[in-house]
Design goal:
This protein has 55 residues and is an all-alpha fold. It is built from two helices and no strands.
Length: 55
């Protein structure tokens, strides 16, 4: 029973260490810059909100 508890604790510690390591590495890769070449437009969306137009 003590061996089972020891193995369980070791596995939980390894799982916690792997999770922390993955969280620290996440997001450190190459992310290209977001560039927009066209001017933004709402296309056919109304300029007023729907709730104001129903009255």
């Amino acid at each position: 029973m003590e061996i089972f508890a020891t193995i369980t604790v070791i596995l939980l510690l390894l799982l916690a260490a792997a999770t922390i390591a993955a969280l620290l590495r996440d997001g450190r890769g190459h992310t290209p810059p977001v560039s927009s070449h066209e001017e933004w437009s709402a296309l056919d969306l109304p300029s007023t909100s729907y709730t104001l137009r129903i009255f």
